[in-house]
Write a structure and sequence with these properties.
With about 250 residues, the protein is an alpha/beta fold. About 35% of the residues lie in helices and about 25% in strands. Strand 3, helix 2 and strand 4 form a beta-alpha-beta unit. The longest helix is centred in the last third of the chain and has 18 residues.
Length: about 250
């Protein structure tokens, strides 16, 4: 009798929604792009966060972050900035791939805008609730999309470059901005942080910067190693604190 009662009760408890993932094919002009979408089934349209990869390309790391965000109840679209989902095998190759995009601002903006426009029209997505986040190279990309003036709720930068060739365009920014950077990151020196603050203040953007002591570049990625002397190393405290800051930020903007 009790066994029958327990089985009946369990059958009445709704199963927790599982994260679903898809490879998404989309285009920037004639360039084929392969993104990665993670989400949970929902009866209502979902807020979406675009995730822009490090200079390595769309490898397992941004895909893992996409699934983390899906667990939090968002759709997450990890974008492809290089085409055909290609991933660098060496730092030299990563530098070449990133340089080809970062060195051509029109290409960079076109590539990320293609992802934005594609996911905006997905039937599962709430087009009024879109944000972007990026790591290193991807953080720079996230800021450049915000500077174009598209309708973003927010942009999050993890150890990304803050400078831009066209600071006057910051007047176009509609998004709130969260920057998470390492206090010892030589790639993002104090002068860049101060210039960024001035740029954002002049444009009256809603911004915040979290600086993590002892953290260098790439502090969120465990595969960055553990030698801060190289200026690229994982920092567990900074990783956890920046992730919590991001979660609070998304609660606020959405």
């Amino acid at each position: 009798m009790w066994r029958f009662f327990i089985i009946t009760l369990l059958l009445q408890i709704p199963l927790l929604a599982q994260v679903k993932t898809e490879i998404i094919n989309y285009k920037d002009g004639n360039v084929n792009l392969k993104g990665f979408l993670a989400y949970k089934e929902s009866k209502t349209k979902l807020p979406v966060v675009l995730i822009v990869h490090e200079w390595w390309g769309l490898n397992d790391y941004p895909k893992m972050r996409a699934q983390q965000l899906a667990e939090l109840g968002y759709a997450a679209f990890a974008v492809d900035m290089y085409g055909d989902g290609k991933v660098a095998a060496t730092p030299d190759e990563a530098g070449k791939f990133a340089g080809e995009v970062r060195g051509d601002l029109s290409k960079l903006r076109s590539r990320i805008n293609a992802a934005y426009e594609f996911i905006k029209h997905d039937k599962r997505i709430d087009p009024d609730k879109i944000a972007i986040m990026g790591y290193c190279f991807g953080g720079t990309v996230a800021l450049e999309l915000a500077r174009t003036g598209v309708d973003l709720k927010g942009a999050v930068v993890f150890h990304g470059g803050l400078s831009t060739a066209n600071p006057s365009e910051t007047k176009n920014v509609k998004a709130k901005i969260l920057v998470c950077t390492g206090g010892d990151d030589k790639f993002v020196p104090e002068k860049d942080i101060l210039a960024f603050q001035n740029e954002m203040n002049k444009a009256k953007v809603d911004w915040q910067i979290n600086i993590y002591s002892g953290a260098v570049h790439a502090f969120t990625n465990p595969k960055s190693g553990n030698n801060p002397a190289t200026n690229a190393a994982y920092n567990e405290n900074a990783d956890k604190r920046s992730f919590e800051a991001m979660k609070q930020f998304f609660k606020e903007i959405f």
